[in-house]
Amino acid sequence: MNCVINSGSLYETSSYFYIRKSEVRVKYYGLIESVVLSFLNNYFKESVLAIVELIDVKKVYPLGKTEVHAVKGVSFEICKGDFISIAGPSGSGKSTILNMIGCIDVPTEGSVLINGTETGGLSDKNITELRHEVLGFIFQSFNLIPVLNVYENVEFPLLLGKSDMSKKEKTDWIDMLIEEVGLSEWRNHKPNELSGGQRQRVAIARALATKPEIVLADEPTANLDSVTSEAIITLMKKINRDLGTTFIFSTHDPSIVEVADHIIKLRDGLITENYRHEDSRACGSDD
Ligand SMILES: Nc1ncnc2c1ncn2[C@@H]1O[C@H](COP(=O)(O)OP(=O)(O)OP(=O)(O)O)[C@@H](O)[C@H]1O
Ligand SMILES: [Mg+2]
User: Quick one: which of 66, 196, 204, 274 has the most CB atoms within 10 Å?
Assistant: First the structure.
């Protein structure tokens, strides 16, 4: 819900609140108070909708006697439920940024906030919990466990942390994910019996196993042909719409970049463009 404050009357029209001075009366104090509280609630809800925020983030890697300035001061916000591409040529800083959002790496300067919490201030235990409960990862090289079949690979993240699901709920959930990525027939097959596209589908299902709010995918289509790449991005977008999972993926493939709702383009560690498609959901809207 968006909140609009004018110097005007107090009434509700669908999802908007307006305040008009002329109709403010002493007898409405209670009502005014509740509207002010409603405004504050909505104001803070809107702020929290930035599920990821980077504030002037820099990353310097030492390299022998010199330094590599991989990210040179980057700020952006990502809204809950969005489908975002981080695009740019090789060496522009895409993986470095994803790794900092995923708490795999830490900024040299600046802040990374997830759900309003600065990750730099978290303990190792809290980082582990965040990575297990809030974040899911999809890698360019799939990173499946070769000795485990499709079901067991998808189940694997659930064995690493605590889960509230009963055994039956867990089996149903994993089977639902395998069905969602179109691999029910391959449930008991090992990764070496699957194509590249099928392996990446397993990796997507595995990333979703813990029901993360955010999935980070570093060049998820880099090892796939163009038709399979498109199918994988379409699948990620379907899951984004169906489950409301925020997807942040990096790519240097121009045909995939524009499929996203929100596009952040990088060059030499800096943002060159940061825009949304006009037909995409506005940040903070309910539908
Ligand atoms: N661990 C590291 N040590 C030193 N330099 C690094 C390290 N990781 C990345 N870099 C450097 O930082 C810069 C950005 O690297 P990054 O991997 O983020 O780029 P990228 O956009 O993901 O590129 P690609 O498309 O090739 O994956 C590059 O110049 C890279 O060489
Ligand atoms: Mg990279």
Answer: 204
